[in-house]
Design a protein that fits this description.
405 residues; mainly alpha; 24 helices; 0% strand; elongated
């Protein structure tokens, strides 16, 4: 009887092909067996996990209140991770009372201390996970550990700590971020830093002001964008110092904050910013003028209708719609400017606000205008086309005075 080795020897060079085919078949069978074994194991693992998750959920109130002894789940790593994950997820949708209840549970059970310990002692993905989880707890005692993470050697660690501090959403976290930025400069991408500062500075935007005065150009640019997002009436006149700053973002932030200042002072500053060479500074100034809702802003809003930027024209027109004044005299001035783009912006805002009928009624009720002027204004209102120059209404001092009253 011929052995298998003798058969292979007779095949000659073809034996190598046969051996290769057999090796591939064996490898495929082993790989398929491994995949099936792994799927079976994972199926059983997730089934047991879901069953345990359901069991914990059934006793959730007793668990959070402390009736269930902590030792029943703290000693098992899998149960501890499940409870921690469930509590952190509950934080995302909890109200103030429920958040306080969950935080009390995490402190009493030692989960907060566990997150702080992991954030300080672990490395790699375990530390990143602990930093993010610590931020989700919103526990103030975790801020020092997160501040240490900001000074980590790897950028992934710094970003995880920055994300955690952002989720704290408190001025103390903002102070740690700003101190770190003042020391290290812009060593992380600007967008995550900006997002974290917006969340943490919303309650107290004043913390930004000292750093805006003494930081480097790159950092000041990020801080200026943050200030533009979080500016509130609490800043008061402190924001005026940035109205003439060399940085466009700071001028834009000042323009936004000025919408909360006393109108007499704000309009004079915003009128200058509305002529800024940078379009988004003019845009912020026009929006703030509209939010002030003061009659003295009308000439500057009308000038905004002639701006070279489309967004500025649209916001100027929308601001004119929201002023508590008679619209017909303002519309007469818009037509008299003979700016086609400004007229289209005004008519678009008028249509979006659904005020065409009101405008038509006001034009018909105008006392100081002749029948010809009324006819021209109505035609422009209906057609959207500017009238010939000889028929265009002339801007009068009396009309301007009436519109500003």
């Amino acid at each position: 009887m011929v052995s298998a080795f003798e058969t292979f020897r007779r095949l000659g060079p073809a034996a190598f092909v046969v051996k290769a085919i057999i090796s591939v078949i064996v490898a495929d069978v082993l790989l398929l067996g491994f995949i099936m074994l792994r799927r079976t194991y994972r199926k059983r693992y997730f089934a047991k996990r879901d069953a345990r998750l359901f069991e914990i959920r059934e006793g959730w109130d007793a668990l959070i209140s402390g009736e269930t002894p902590y030792a029943t789940w703290r000693s098992k790593a899998s149960d501890r991770q499940l409870v921690e994950s469930m509590v952190l997820d509950a934080f995302e949708v909890a109200g103030p009372e429920e958040s306080a209840r969950l935080l009390k549970f995490m402190r009493a059970s030692g989960l907060v201390e566990k997150c702080i310990s992991d954030a300080r002692n672990h490395q790699g993905w375990r530390r990143h996970r602990a930093l993010v989880a610590l931020g989700r707890t919103r526990a103030p005692e975790g801020i020092p550990a997160l501040a240490e993470g900001l000074r980590g050697r790897k950028q992934e660690t710094r970003l995880a700590a920055l994300r955690g501090l952002g989720q704290m959403a408190c001025p103390e976290a903002a102070a740690e971020i700003l101190n770190w930025v003042g020391e290290a400069g812009l060593v992380v991408p600007a967008l995550p830093l900006q997002s974290a500062l917006v969340q943490t500075c919303a309650e107290r935007p004043q913390v930004l002001l000292p750093y805006l005065q003494h930081s480097g150009a790159n950092v000041r640019e990020v801080l200026a964008r943050v200030l533009g997002e979080v500016a509130t009436p609490s800043l008061g006149t402190k924001i005026l110092q940035f109205a003439e700053d060399n940085l466009p973002e700071l001028r834009a932030a000042a323009a936004r904050a000025l919408s909360y200042v006393e109108p007499g002072l704000a309009v004079s500053v915003l009128s200058e910013l509305a002529r800024d060479p940078i379009w988004f500074v003019r845009l912020r100034a026009i929006v703030s003028l509209g939010q002030l809702g003061h009659g003295t802003a009308i000439p500057f809003l009308l000038h905004g209708l002639t701006d070279s930027n489309r967004l500025v024209r649209l916001r100027a027109a929308e601001a004119l719609m929201h002023l508590n004044i008679e619209m017909a005299p303002v519309f007469e001035q818009v037509v008299a400017m003979r700016d086609r783009y400004g007229l289209h912006a005004y008519l678009t805002a008028l249509e979006n606000a659904g005020l065409q009928a009101k405008m038509e009624a006001e034009i018909n009720a105008m006392r100081l205008a002749s029948q010809q002027v009324k006819a021209v204004l109505l035609e422009v209102l209906h057609t959207g086309a500017a009238p010939p120059e000889q028929h265009a209404p002339q801007e009068k001092a009396s009309t301007a005075a009436a519109s500003c009253s």
